[in-house]
Amino acid sequence: MQYKDYYKILGVVRGASEAEIKKAYRKLARKYHPDVSKERDAEEKFKAVNEANDVLSDQEKRAAYDQLGQHKPGQNFRPPPGWEQQFGQGAGDSGNMDFGDLFSQMFGGGMSGATHGRRGGRGQAGQDFELALEITLEEAYQGGEKTLQLEVPEPSAQGFMVRVPRTIKVRIPKGATEGQRLRLPGKGGSGMHGGKAGDLFLRIAFQPHQWFKPSGHDLNLDVPLTPWEAALGAQVEIPTLAGKVRLKVKPGSRSGQKMRLTGKGLPKAGDTFGDLYCVFQIATPEPLSDQERKLFEELQQTSSFNPRSF
């Protein structure tokens, strides 16, 4: 029987973690899939990658494989005495058996990645997917439900991957934040040969808002003030995600000055809220009417105020 170096086939070290094996397998499966690959001998490489993953992703099979020791790829060898009995039922004359068939017979069923999809045995879990999910700040504030129209790759009856339309409903949690990941179990790729479906991960991204700029659970809002509102003080109406409120502007307010409105930001855990930071911006009328120009000229002649200290 000829030895196959499954670790080398997947391009991982012998002590690789389950996550590293999974990542390497997915990368190579996409690279060599016969439906999309232009690589030479893509189908044979695809079968080899799936065979290696079938063994190394299963703890029992991997333990049996590691007990065989290390040999050169293609080197003829025989399992050590008692190996078949230790890990499963005897496999008969293993010296005349293909390496992959040896594991198939000992552990039951065909290799999960075979392109023609032999049935039985342990199934291959479906692929996890991660997508960006754009929501509005209003949706993050209120929570709710969105319906997504997706196309996901799924294995056909012949074992090839095809793109299938799918409708998925997702609940937006109240207080969702930028970058938050939502996990939808079983909404990823379909499993093969009875394997469980993968998961769908949705990464929250906020759509640009007309007024608010989010920072975690806090919000920032530019509030334009006229020169006389900033100088004399005023009460101005501003928007919040819960509706409009009145904001008291103190006399002598400056451009760039911040004013915090507690609890007017995005929801947090425990029925609390972030804050809304109002940033004052001084705006002048444009164009000036004749009367406005005259009044500004009078102010220029009357006032000794100089904002420049250099």
Rounded mean pLDDT score: 81
Which series of helices and strands comes N to C? HHHHHHEHEEEEEEHEEEEEEH
Q: How much is the radius of gyration in Å?
A: 33 Å
What shape does the CA trace take? elongated
Distance between the termini: 87 Å
Number of helices: 9
Q: How would you characterize the largest beta sheet?
A: 4 strands, mixed
* Uncertain stretches: 89-95, 108-121
Count the E strands: 13
* Helix content estimate: 25-40%
> Going across the major beta sheet, what is the strand order?
6-7-13-10
Helix/strand class: alpha+beta
- Proportion of β residues? 25-35%
Structure report:
The chain has a 4-stranded mixed β-sheet. The protein has a 3-stranded mixed β-sheet with strand order 1-5-4. The chain starts with 5 loop residues before the first helix and ends in an 8-residue tail after the last helix. The chain has helices at 6-10, 18-32, 42-56, 59-66, 83-87, 99-107, 137-142, 227-232, 290-302; strands spanning 129-135, 144-155, 161-172, 181-184, 200-206, 212-215, 218-225, 234-238, 245-249, 258-261, 267-268, 272-273, 276-282. It has 310 residues and is an alpha+beta fold. The longest helix has 15 residues, at 18-32.
Brief descriptors of the model:
26% helix, 4-stranded mixed sheet, elongated, alpha+beta, single chain
Quick rundown:
With 310 residues, the chain is α+β, with helices and mostly antiparallel strands. It is 26% helix and 25% strand.
List the helices and strands and how they pair.
Layout: H1 6-10, H2 18-32, H3 42-56, H4 59-66, H5 83-87, H6 99-107, E1 129-135, H7 137-142, E2 144-155, E3 161-172, E4 181-184, E5 200-206, E6 212-215, E7 218-225, H8 227-232, E8 234-238, E9 245-249, E10 258-261, E11 267-268, E12 272-273, E13 276-282, H9 290-302
Parallel strand pairs: 1-5, 7-13
Antiparallel strand pairs: 2-3, 4-5, 6-7, 8-9, 10-13, 11-12
